[in-house]
Every structure is written in C-alpha cells, then in structure tokens.
Specification:
495 residues; Rossmann fold; six-stranded parallel beta sheet; 35% helix; 22% strand
Length: 495
C-alpha cells in the first residue's frame, strides 16, 4: 500500500485526508493538538499533532519513505511550506502543494503585511476586530490604546488565549471560538465590540473570507485585508485528487452533491450547503441559480444549461464527477422538491458511482410563508401548475382534492410565457369548492432584490399578475390575519 504524508492545516487538507482514507497509509500532520483532534475523527488515519522544523521533517521523510508528501498548510504559513518543500528535495520525496482560492473585493483597504496593517491602523479611529489568529498578535500591541480598542477572535485553545493575555488584552476582548463563522455571526461580533474596523487575511472561500467581506459591508465597517503572500506553485483540490488517482491508481469515489441553495440569498442558505459549495471544483445549474452563487464562490468552474435541458445538465454533473472533479449541482429552494436530486439518481441508474449526496434547502413554500406570516402551521399541500411534466388533468385533480380536504395550498410555477392563464384556471377549479373571500398571498423574488408580497382574496388572486418568480399560497378555512399577516392557528387551547 502506498504511503502518504499530508500536512493538513486547512479545511482542504482535512477533506483530502477524508477522500484518501482507506486508499493508502496516511500520516496526517497538524501543528496543534486541536488540529490533531479534528484529524483523529477520520478513521484509519495516523495523526501527528506537533510542530516540526525542517530537520525534523527531513528525518521523518527519510524514516518513513513516503511515496508523496502533500502540503495543504495555511497560505499564511510560507515558512512551513518552504520547510516541507526543502525537506522533500533533500530526501528525494515527491511533493505536491494544495492551493486555496483567493480573490480581493472592491472597496476594502489592503496591506501586504502585518507590519503595514499595523501602521495603517494607527491612522484609523475606532475599535478593531482582529480575525487573523494569535500568532502575530504581539505586532498589534504597538497600536495606541491597544487594550481598549482591539478585540481578537482566536481558536478556543489554551495557547491562543494565553497569547492574547500576554499582549495585555483583557478577557472581555478575547473571543475564543471555533468556526465556521457565517455572515450573521460575524455581524453580531462586530456589533458586540462596537467595531469600526475588521481585519482579516486573504484566506479564500474555505477560510471564511467572503463571510467576513459581506459582514463588514452589512455592518458598515471598514475592511482591512492583509494580502496573501507569494506561494509555491500548486494545484486545486480537484486537480490534486485527479493527480493522485492517476499516479497511485486510487479509487476515490466520485461524488455529485445536489445542493438546495434556498431562495437565493446567502442568509437563507444552510451551513451544509455553503460547505458543499466551498469544497467543490465545479458548480452546475440553471443559469439564474449559478449567477446567484458565482460571486460568493470565486474560482469555481461554472456550467449551466437553459430551461428544458435539465437532463443534459444532470448528465454533465455526473460526467464531471467521473473525470475526478468535485461537483455541486445547485437547485433553487430545496434540492428534492421540484429540484434535480431525483433526476440525478435516475440518470446514474443502478450504478454505484458517482456517489450522490443530497443537501436540502429552504423550499419556496416555507420561504414565502415566512414573508406572509405563518400560514403553514397546520397541514398543507404543495402543487406545481407547470404541465410540462405533469398532465393538466392530473393537476386539476390535485387542486380539487386539496380544496376538498381544506388544506392550505402552496402553488409553484403559477405562470410563464407559455402558460399565462394557468393561475386563473387553477383559481376557477378552487372556486368550485372555496369561497371567493378565502385569504391568499403572493410573494415574488423571495430573498432576492425586489422582493414583494401581497395578501388578497381568492377572487382577487384569479385576476392577479404573476410569473415564474412568484409563489402563491391559498389559505384553508382556518387562516386569518393577525397584525396584517396570514396566520393558520395550530389549535392550541386558550388562544
């Protein structure tokens, strides 16, 4: 069995170890006990949790005779990278560098080093939230009113907290927490310390960089970015997988992850969906959905096909996975509810590869209901008015049955250029059983720019203008308005 050494100091490194586990004898190296604990969760992997200098690396490589050493250390650890590379050269050991994606947003301040960042901060007023770790914290102690202005977010380990205290930071100014840090948490921390400046390194998407960017924008604070140092030549995650497969004949199961991205705004995307999109090489989807995520996940290979070419889109995702790339198929809302998950399974058939994972998302019915109030508190039905794949006669039966059962009804795809009158026809069917004053709601562009909503009656709904970006809710007999919002009582007593 081949022997590999992986310096897994990043999320990419840990993910690569997971993909390689069982394919080779793996020594996974971390610089800290905490990093080692994360790697120990991967079965069948030997873990070393200690800092190694170049001489120690050289000795380790000579003793273990690795077939390849993979450097997945942090981009801000250039000395470690140089030590690994040098030790590999001296021991004639194959070396592979795994790179992270980068990208610098417009409108931020930029420093090419910590020293330069400190000098810039001396001229900027207000409290500072440092998200650059504890190793270079001492440099910031030179700032005027350091103990009063600076708040540091560090890993929840003894060494990191001790480094903060040694520089004179009071306990109230130390945030010892483990990520990931979504935008909302970053914003909350900025507000908690009344920060006017957020300092970060250009760590790429998997380092939470873009969540910090969006948080700074939302909180209205200055973003100071310390640029990524020059890095040794390297490859992306997907390319590393392909190279290792070719060289060592590994059989790492190809994978397609079908990801529900919710209504389209990052705030309503699940952490699991975000993780899948950060980990992938290629994103496949309908053009509108790909456009919703392209700016947040730069450096990804993007593929899209237009409406009516869903099978082609799913087949492309499967082919990309078979070629060695990690693939995310994005779906608006949920990945299974009118999404692509079933079609991906169908096209793969009974084959075992690629492996398919389904990541659920916030479906339009739930998102629309939250805008309108709480109309889905009791039993409800979800029906699409698109007859492209379902005969209209079947849709008519479902509408009639849902009305007869007095269910709240969520209507997807209420109208399009090819079927402009489908909502009117649906209302005519419902009006056979339901009164014209039955409460309804329309939400357009849920979670996106231009979101709008309206509460109206079923009779008014029949004449309403809607399109494919609208979700329609028709209330049951129990639905009422409370403070201008649609509410379905659950039936609790004494209410």
């Amino acid at each position: 069995m081949y022997k590999l050494c992986v310096f897994a100091g990043t999320a990419d490194g840990r993910q690569l170890v997971e993909r390689l586990a069982g394919q080779a004898e793996i020594l996974a190296c971390a610089a800290t006990e905490y990093g080692g604990e994360l790697l120990e969760e991967i079965p069948g992997v030997e873990v070393s949790a200690q800092r190694l200098d170049e001489n120690q690396m050289e000795e380790l490589f000579r003793q273990r005779q690795f077939d390849c050493v993979i450097d997945a250390t942090h981009p801000y650890a250039p000395i470690v990278t140089e030590n690994i590379r040098s030790a590999c050269e001296k021991t004639d050991t194959s070396y592979l560098r795994l790179l992270r994606d980068g990208g610098l947003p417009e409108g931020c301040l930029f420093a090419d080093s910590t020293a330069q960042a400190v000098e810039m901060l001396k001229t900027l007023p207000g409290n500072i939230l440092l998200t650059t770790g504890s190793k270079e914290l001492a440099a910031y102690a030179a700032l005027p009113d350091y103990a009063q202005r600076v708040y540091a977010r560090v890993l929840p380990v003894e060494a990191s907290v001790a480094a903060c205290r040694e520089t004179g930071l009071p306990a109230a100014h130390i945030y010892a927490v483990q990520g990931p840090f979504p935008e909302e948490l970053n914003v909350a921390m900025l507000h908690a310390c009344n920060a006017q400046i957020l300092v970060t390194k250009q760590t790429g998407s998997k380092g939470g960089f873009f969540e910090k960017v969006s948080a700074a924008q939302k909180a209205g604070v200055t973003l100071l970015v310390i640029g990524r140092p020059e890095s040794a030549p390297g490859v992306s995650f997907g390319e590393a997988v392909r190279l290792l497969q070719q060289r060592f004949d590994f059989r790492m199961t190809p994978q397609v992850t079908v990801v529900g991205i919710g209504p389209g705004n990052y705030e309503n995307m699940t952490i699991r969906a975000d993780t899948a999109l950060r980990a992938c090489d290629a994103i496949v989807g309908y053009p509108v959905y790909v456009d919703l995520v392209r700016d947040r996940y730069p450096g990804k290979e993007l593929h899209s096909t237009p409406m009516t070419r869903e099978a082609e889109r799913c087949q492309l995702a499967l082919e990309l996975a078979r070629s060695g790339k990690t693939v995310a198929m994005v779906c608006s809302g949920d990945s299974g509810i009118y999404g692509m998950a079933a079609l991906v399974y169908e096209l793969r058939g009974e084959a075992q590869e690629p492996e398919i994972q389904v990541v659920p998302g916030l479906t339009a019915a739930c998102s629309a209901a939250a805008v309108l109030g709480a109309p889905l508190t009791h039993d409800f039905a979800v029906i699409s008015l698109s007859d492209r794949l379902t005969p209209w006669e079947t849709i008519e039966k479902r509408l009639d049955c849902a009305a007869a059962a007095d269910l709240t009804i969520a209507l997807y795809n209420p109208a399009s250029h090819g079927r402009p009158d489908h909502l009117k026809r649906a209302c005519d069917i419902l009006l056979r059983r339901l009164p014209g004053e039955r409460l309804c709601g329309i939400v357009r562009n849920i979670g996106r720019e231009g979101q709008s909503s309206r509460i109206l009656t079923l009779a008014e709904l029949r004449e309403a203008e809607v399109d494919m970006f609208c979700t329609v809710l028709i209330g049951s007999a129990a639905v009422k308005t409370v403070a201008g919002q649609l509410v379905t009582p659950r039936g609790y007593r004494n209410v």
